[in-house]
Each structure stands twice: as structure tokens, then as C-alpha cells.
Amino acid sequence: MLRPKPNIDKLISATHGGINYLELEKLGISPADILDFSVSVNPFGPPPGIKEALNQASIDRYPDSEATELEQLLAGRLNIALDNLVIGSGSTELIRLVATAYFDTDDLVIIPQPTYGEYEIACHLVGARVLKPPMLENFHLNLAETMSLIRRHQPRGIFLCNPNNPTGQYLSQEEVKKILSVAKDSLVVLDEAYIAFAENTWASVDLIERGNLVILRSMTKDYALAGLRLGYAVATESIISVLKRVRPPWNVSSVAQAAGVFALKADGYLDTCGMKIKEAKEFLVKELSRLGFSPLPSQANFFLVKVGDAAKFRQALLNKGILVRDCSSFGLPDYIRLAPHSIADCQKLIAAIKESEVYRNVS
Predict the structure, then answer these.
(1) How far is the C-alpha of 284 from the C-alpha of 342, rounded, in Å?
(2) Which CATH code of 1.10.10.10, 3.90.1150.150, 3.20.20.70, 3.90.1150.10 fits the domain covering 6-45+269-362?
(3) Rounded Cα gap, residues 296 and 171, in angstroms
(4) Phi/psi at 330 (nearest 5 deg)?
(5) pLDDT digits (tens, 9 = 90+) for 254-276
(6) Is it the case that residue 360 has pLDDT exceeding 70?
(7) pLDDT tens digits, residue range 103-135?
(8) Which residues contact 199 (CB under 8 A, 6 or more apart)?
(9) Which pTM does this prediction carry?
(10) What is each CA distance from 193 to 40, 116, 264, in whole angstroms?
(11) Domain boundaries in the chain?
């Protein structure tokens, strides 16, 4: 029997939030009827007027492989050269490009846990080994231990999600600089997919000049383009040129490029959404606390809540048309992750929790 490579044969797909359409079909629930708190995408949707702009995208021709207009706009916003930027079909594609370009069989990559599962998948795809040190009990990165492991093992790569998914903890500039200082021979991937709606952020782009840092960002999250997939990486010219050599041709569709261009020209939209998300998050944290839960502090647009049996909690709410993120796949079977919607939608979530059997068991 023909088998794939051993590392692929053992590969287990990562679990993600979002709607499982087959699951809903079995339950007899329409996807249109689901209120989805399980994904941390801008809940207020893309900027108004974007659909009309997408109608102008040419789908009868191959897309611009360089995404030239989008790259130029982004480079201007970030105040970097075009050679410091590459566009991807979501940040997850860029994670795989990094692994393909820089990691090889038996290379060691450090991935502090819990965090986004696709880092590990990307490493296993190329046969790299993964070291997964646990974070502290409060879900902050164990900085001293991480630096010690880097000195001891001299890993080929290090993945840092900032703010971290699913914990929402945010590393300071000083903490990242300390990691870079001991990881001079490692490629550090700083995934800032959730930076647009994080609190008290600092500018990371200047750090790329150290020569071993790749910054990832997600326009999918920022502008609610999950159905199109759009992200970008920022790094030195030498790293970006390598990533461009290994990316697939025409990796970003014409429609996704048009969406990105339109979104970047929607001045003030992210700021407006950010204020509404902050207000909804504060409301949701307050209401959950009143119900006896203890939402964990988070500097991101999402947060963890300890609920007991997360799988049962998720299922009970799904039966009421509400989806939350069961964090069992992160190694946190007692926790769910919530990303706020409008306050009206948050009120529906609170009402559904009050009515659910799992809440009565918890309370």
C-alpha cells in the first residue's frame, strides 16, 4: 500500500473555531441562524461598500502575483519598503511558507503552549521537531524558561503569538527584545494576527532590522475577510525574497486583493470597530462575572472563561444557535474562548447561558 512520508502519515489536523457545516447539517441547524462567538474576526463585518468594489475585480484573468497595489498601500501605511513585505492568503499560509523555507527534517522549533495549532502543523509538514514549553499558571509566557531553552537548544525557529491565541496575553517590547537577544541564530516568528484590536500595543516593525524576525498580520481578522483569506508578512529584504520564492503563484485571488485595497482606504473604520469591540467586551465580561464566571484578563479582542466541561458547554449553547470555542484542543478542556459581538448579540449569549442546563449545573 502506498503511504505518504512518515511525518505526513502521523500528521493530525489542527482544530479551529468557526462553523462546522457538516455538524450543523446533522443537527438540522442552518449556518445562517448561528451566532458565532468562536472566531476572533471583526464582528462588525467588512467596511460598507466593499461588495460593490469586489464586483469590479477581474476573475477572468490570473491575479497579480505580487499584489502590487495592495503591497504599495500597505508599505505606505507601515512606512517600510516594498521589499520588506509579502502578501499571503491569510497568515496561516505565511506560517507554512516560513516553515517550508527555513525548517528542515529534525530542526528544533520552540512553540510555547497553549497557542495556535497551525505552528506545530507547519513544522511537522517539513519534518521539524517541536519543543512545547508550558506557559505560567496565569498563562503569561515563562520568559526566563524560554530564554534558557533557547540558549540550551539553539533552535532553528521560535513561534510567538502576540497577543497570544487563545489566552490574550501580550508580550511587551522589552520581552520580545530579550528573546531576540538570545535567539540570534534562530528565526523568530512574531504572529500579530490580533494586533489591530489589542490594547496598549507597541510598534514591532522596527525590530525586523535585527535580521531574524518575521512579523505576521491578518487582514482577515481586521476587516472580516474570512471568506477571502488575506494576510501579510514583514521582514528584512533577504527573508521576504526567500518567502516569495516558495509561495505558490497567484496565491492571493483578485477578489481578495480588491478587498484589501478597499479596506485599507476605509479610513477610520478599524478605529470605530475597535471602540465598539472594547465596549462589548467590557459588557460581556461584566455580565459573565455577574453569573459567577471569572473571565481571564486579556489584552486581545477575545478572552478565556473557565466553565467546567467546555465540550458540554459548547454543545448546550450550539443547540440554542450560539457557537463558542471549546479550548480542549489547546489543552484547556475546562475553558471556552469568547470574542465579543455587538452588545445586542452579547445579550443573547448571556440569555442563552442563563437558560442552559450546563449553567444550572455550574451555578
Answers:
(1) 10
(2) 3.90.1150.10
(3) 16
(4) -85, 0
(5) 999 999 999 999 999 999 999 99
(6) no
(7) 999 999 999 999 999 999 999 999 999 999 999
(8) 170, 278, 299, 300
(9) 0.95
(10) 10, 11, 16
(11) 6-45+269-362, 50-264
